[in-house]
Amino acid sequence: MILYHYPHCPFCQRVRLFLAFKGIAYKSVPLSYDDEETPKKLGFPKMLPIMDFGDGKIMNESLDILREIEQRQPFPIGFIGPVEGKLQWASMAAVNIPDYFSLLLPWYLYHYQSEFKKFPKGADYFKTSKERSKGRSFTQLKAQRVEIFNTAVLPHLEPIIDLVEDAYFIMGPTFSVADCVLAADLSGLRIVPDIALPVEIKHYIERVEQHCRLRLLE
């Protein structure tokens, strides 16, 4: 099995957490952010993660990959009980927050130095493309980080805080694939300096990492 991924990418980190939870060995292939040829050769546009299961099946959507992993290796159980509804909620709870990625993007470039130093052209492409899509420079976004967090992000974290402060995991005491998704999507908040990240969020991410035996931050 081969996972093509960006180390900084929360959608890729979802899969990495679930593979770690399952104890599945795989080949990790980080790609440069400007690499369009490798995904094309695998039959997809430039969108990661891509998982090659080694038997002719190749997939590139994180939730589909998670479901396929569960089907192939059902133990330890990740899709337990009525988890699908929680999985859909978890997959949107953070990444659909307005300006969420405006807050995180400049700090991915700064924090994941092993990725972006290895691929300097990819780093340039990442910065240029994200600044264009956000209509603001990384310098501007860094300067606005506290305002963005307090006004655009923090209010939308309240439902998540209400959930994780009262339960160990999304499904209560039982770990599920939904926790891999939500924790991966929230993880980037930890690399943004000077924001008042609620301790409930921080502790929840750490619980999931410990359960999966994988740390997402470098």
Name a few traits of the molecule:
2 domains, globular, 218 residues, Glutathione S-transferase Yfyf (Class Pi), Chain A, domain 2, 11 helices, Glutaredoxin, mainly alpha, 4-stranded mixed sheet
Mean pLDDT: 97
Helix content: 55-70%
Query: Rg from C-alpha positions?
Result: 17 Å
Portion of residues in beta strands equals: 5-15%
Number of helices: 11
The sequence of SSEs as H and E is EHEHEEHHHHHHHHH
Can you tell me the overall shape?
globular
**How can the largest sheet be summarized?**
4 strands, mixed
Low-pLDDT residue spans? none
What is the CATH T-level topology of the largest domain? Glutathione S-transferase Yfyf (Class Pi), Chain A, domain 2
The level 1 CATH classification of the largest domain is: Mainly Alpha
Which class do the helix and strand fractions yield?
A: mainly alpha
| Total domain count | 2
> How many angstroms separate the termini?
23 Å
Q: Main sheet: which strands, in order across?
A: 2-1-3-4
Q: What is the total tally of β strands?
A: 4
Proper CATH architecture of the largest domain: Up-down Bundle
Would you kindly provide a written description of the structure presented here, covering whatever features stand out?
The protein is mostly helical and 218 residues long. It folds into two domains: 2-72, Glutaredoxin (3-Layer(aba) Sandwich); 83-212, Up-down Bundle (Glutathione S-transferase Yfyf (Class Pi), Chain A, domain 2), CATH 1.20.1050. It is built from eleven helices and four strands, in the order βαβαββααααααααα. The chain has a four-stranded mixed sheet with strand order 2-1-3-4. Helix 1 runs parallel beside helix 3, helix 4 packs parallel to helix 10 and helix 10 crosses helix 11 (199-212). The radius of gyration is 17 Å and the shape is globular. The mean pLDDT is 97.
